[in-house]
Design brief:
heterodimer, A: 222 residues, MetI-like fold, 78% helix, 0% strand, globular, B: alpha+beta, Rossmann fold, OB fold (Dihydrolipoamide Acetyltransferase, E2P), 2 domains, six-stranded mixed β-sheet, five-stranded antiparallel β-sheet, 21 strands, disordered N terminus
Chain lengths: 222, 365
């Protein structure tokens, strides 16, 4: 069960970090008039098209003793990032970035620009407009972003294998563990983990969607 | 210009370029309602966005009273939230997730709760929206939503008010009651209000002053009767309800009488006020259908100088007005009341005399 716990811990952490980092990025992508914005958009979307092994490979190199990230980490903490839980979190944040940012951008851009203009004319600065108009009207988008990021991180396999390896308690997530069991023809153990993951994921999603439907947009309205 | 502008007036000089559209204006709005009138595409909404700070002009100055909102020369450009203006959009732009009350309170969040309530109670009462306070915008009718949006703009005590066709889509009765409320509100405050419309009836109902715009330029300024009764452009003449636009050629100029004689494209000729023309010039003359009198016999002893004989071509009743098409050298449209049509016994084919005052004939370019 340590694998399950590890996977959920990773997914929670990555979702939390991405909400904090992804929301300002999504805001910028939605409202900036910067000309080279398309380059950032392309970068954010990269993990959608790259095979996880490609992303994982470059991350592994960057995090290793000769990579820039690895060197930095070595200087700061005395060890590299590869094959550690922290390394796994960083890799997952990058890998799940579009799953958080794209639903947010889509819902920010759907808001009637007249509402944003009205808010500003009524004296609200950008931060207040974001808090009191944009965010409350984007609740469904935020929930989609949370669910997609969480689910995607929970299910990732290739990047974890490349960057984290298979260290019990540190980097061996559920998906890796299931793969291990299948490799060793331990179908009963694989099934037990897979079924547990399936059940927990379903209950979690059902809770989120149910809550979203009941509470709807009123969540942050005040 | 500067002399007539009160200390609280709105002053705008701006050059705006958006793609191929250029807007060049220079005008001031004194306290009270000023109408910005013109056909759609004239740049009226763009101008309001520019005053509100939502778009930045290439060059110019915008100020309210002594406060500068924008000055290209002095590199001043206040953000919309620093301008203290009220702006009512064509769509009500109410926040759909907030109640009517929360919408109205949005602009006065910095006030203490008791001050907020004082400001709110007055406006809720004035605009008769107390009963709607806890409703959300989707549960409001069009008229109710516009009242709430207007209250939301006014509660902040703006230094100037911008209204972009705020009452389009409302029926006449609702319109005039909202306008009455707005006047009552502004009675004590006397802020400049710039009211955009392309509807002639609103100009008549509202207007202290009117500025007419076409293709990004100001065409005329003045009180409604001066400006709209003597439109210098044909597009404005049509928009402001001149049913008759006649082509003619100047035949004779009588400087001492201040008139000229114009031969219409048919056989008729009429006297019109003097313009900057010379004999032989082609001119266009706009005449309101309601400014033409009908007579069964040739009238005598009238001050009106233009009396034309003609034949009624057709009659058509439109609500309480009878619309007569008359051939009298040229083709005229004449509006008379139903009772006048009945008493005169008008029917197609009747012989009829048209009577036009010289000053009802307006030269347009």
């Amino acid at each position: 069960m340590t694998e399950l716990f590890l996977s959920f811990r990773l997914a929670f952490l990555v979702t939390a970090i991405l909400l904090v980092l992804g929301t300002p990025l999504a805001y910028w992508l939605s409202f900036s008039t910067f000309r080279a914005k398309f380059l950032v958009e392309a970068f954010v979307a990269l993990p959608l098209v790259l095979p996880p092994t490609v992303l994982g490979f470059y991350l592994l190199v960057a995090m290793g003793p000769n990579g820039p990230l690895g060197k930095l980490w070595l200087a700061l903490f005395g060890h590299t990032l590869a094959f550690t839980f922290t390394g796994l979190v960083i890799a997952s944040v990058l890998y799940s970035l579009p799953f958080c940012v794209q639903p947010l951008v889509a819902s920010f851009e759907r808001i009637d620009p007249k509402l944003l203009a009205a808010s500003r004319v009524l004296g609200a600065n950008s931060w207040r407009t974001f808090r009191t108009v944009i965010l409350p009207l984007s609740i469904p988008g935020v929930i989609t972003a949370i669910v997609l990021t969480f689910a995607h991180t929970l299910g990732e396999f290739g990047v974890v294998l490349m960057v984290g390896g298979n260290l019990p308690g540190t980097t061996r997530t559920v998906s890796i563990s299931i793969y291990d069991h299948v490799q060793s023809i331990e179908y009963a153990a694989a099934n037990q983990l897979a079924l547990t993951l399936l059940a927990i994921s379903f209950v979690l999603l059902a809770l989120v969607y149910g809550l979203n439907r009941r509470v709807g947009v009123r969540w942050l309205a005040n | 210009m500067a002399g007539e502008l009160a200390a609280t007036g709105l002053r705008v000089r701006a050059h705006i370029a958006r793609g191929t559209f250029h807007l060049d204006v220079d005008f001031s709005v004194p306290p009270g309602i000023t109408i910005l009138f013109g056909p759609s595409g004239a740049g009226k909404s763009t101008l309001l966005d520019c005053i509100a700070g939502l778009i930045v002009p290439k060059e110019g100055e915008i100020s309210v009273g002594a406060k500068e909102l924008y000055s290209s020369q002095r590199a001043i450009n206040l953000a919309p939230q620093q301008r203290h203006l009220g702006y009512l959009f064509q769509s009500d732009a109410l926040f759909p997730h907030l109640t009517a009350k929360q919408n109205i309170e949005y602009g006065i969040a910095r006030l203490s709760a008791p001050d907020r309530d004082i400001a709110l109670v007055e406006l809720l009462k004035l605009f008769r929206i107390e009963a709607l306070a806890s409703r959300k915008p989707p549960e409001l009718s069009g008229g109710e939503a516009q009242r709430v949006a207007l209250a939301r703009a006014l509660v902040t005590n703006p230094k100037a008010l911008l209204l972009d066709e705020p009452l389009s889509g409302l029926d006449a009765e609702l319109k005039s009651s909202i306008i009455t409320d707005l006047r009552a509100w502004n009675g004590a405050r006397q802020i400049p209000i710039l009211y955009v419309t392309h509807d002639r009836t609103e100009v008549d109902a509202l207007g202290e002053r009117v500025i007419t715009m076409d293709k990004g330029k100001i065409v005329q300024q003045g009180i409604p009767r001066q400006v709209l009764d003597a439109p210098r452009k044909q597009s404005l003449a049509l928009a402001s309800g001149f049913e008759n636009i006649l082509e003619g050629i100047v035949r004779e100029i009588r400087l001492e009488d201040g008139i000229m004689r114009v031969a219409l494209s048919g056989s008729a000729s009429i006297e019109v006020p003097l313009g900057h023309n010379k004999p032989g010039d082609a001119v266009r003359i706009a005449i309101r259908a309601g400014d033409i009198l009908l007579a069964l016999e040739r009238p005598k002893g009238l001050s009106a100088r233009n009396i034309l004989q003609g034949t009624i071509q057709s009659l058509e009743q439109r609500s309480v007005t009878m619309i007569c098409k008359v051939a009298a050298g040229a083709n005229f449209e004449v509006h008379v009341t139903l009772s006048a049509a009945r008493v005169l016994g008008l029917r197609p084919g009747s012989e009829i005399w048209l009577v036009l005052k010289t000053y009802s004939c307006h030269l347009v370019s």
